[in-house]
Design a protein that fits this description.
The chain contains eight helices and twelve strands. By secondary structure, the protein is α/β, with parallel strands linked by helices. Helix 2 packs parallel to helix 3 and helix 6 packs across helix 7. It is elongated. The two termini are about 25 Å apart.
Length: about 230
């Protein structure tokens, strides 16, 4: 989403300048804010496609800013930045409404990948974009309503099934490793020993594959993970 408007909430001037420079180099429009109060003021003045939000801010902290932004804009993508690496801090950030979490110091490449991915996902909900409904072969999936309409009938989807579908849609045509899916969908360690992931893939194949024993959408890549092909035949 080139030209997307990003609200950057960061109180460290040198870091804010560096982040803004790199985002603008990618074609994004950046509006900076040095405090939580200023962030809410800027948010009230213009529409934004994504917020990059530091956790530690003078005055109102990032958690409170995140809660207020989320209450005002339920679908606004929020990427939280923090110097805190503790699990409890990550959980607090996500519980306050953040969509993703990046610990300082972070690599520029990873940061930009997170931004691109979040903007792609947010495009599903925009008029003229993918919307909340996507096609998967002969089936139609309403991501908002969590329901699939398939040749075999209507199938209600759980939140985790929808989350997994979103992970595949974001990386359509690419190999997604088991570790990536375990981390992004379940929040597990990438090397966790579990059959949960495989069971979910079996369920998605049962819903959407013409012949689950010979999948054309959710393909196994031996020793690596899976590759998703929306139209099949890949």
């Amino acid at each position: 989403m080139t030209g997307a408007a990003i609200l950057l909430v960061e109180d460290e001037p040198h870091l804010a300048r560096g982040i803004a420079f790199n985002l603008e180099s990618e074609g994004y429009r950046v509006v900076p804010a040095g405090s939580g109060e200023e962030a809410l003021e800027r948010f009230g003045e213009a529409a934004f496609d994504l917020v990059v939000l530091d956790l530690m801010l003078p005055g109102m902290d990032g958690l409170e800013v995140c809660r207020r932004l989320r209450a005002a804009a339920p679908r606004l993508p929020i990427l939280m930045l923090t110097a805190r690496a503790a699990e409890r801090d990550r959980v607090k950030g996500l519980a306050s409404g953040a969509d993703d979490y990046l610990t300082k110091p972070f690599s520029l490449e990873e940061f930009l990948l997170r931004v691109r991915g979040m903007l792609r996902r947010s495009g599903w909900y925009r008029p003229g974009g993918r919307g909340g409904v996507v096609r998967l072969g002969p089936s139609e999936v309403d991501l908002d309503a969590q329901v699939a309409r398939t040749p075999g009938g209507e199938v209600p989807l759980t939140e985790l099934e929808v989350k997994m579908l979103r992970a595949f849609l974001e990386r359509e045509g690419q190999v997604v490793t088991r570790g990536e899916l375990l981390s992004t969908v379940w929040g597990m360690a990438p090397d966790a020993e579990t059959r949960t992931l495989d069971n979910f893939v079996v369920r998605l194949r049962r819903y959407f594959e013409p012949d689950p024993a010979r999948p054309v959408h959710f393909l196994t890549v031996r020793g690596r993970g899976y590759r998703f092909v929306r139209e099949g035949g890949g």
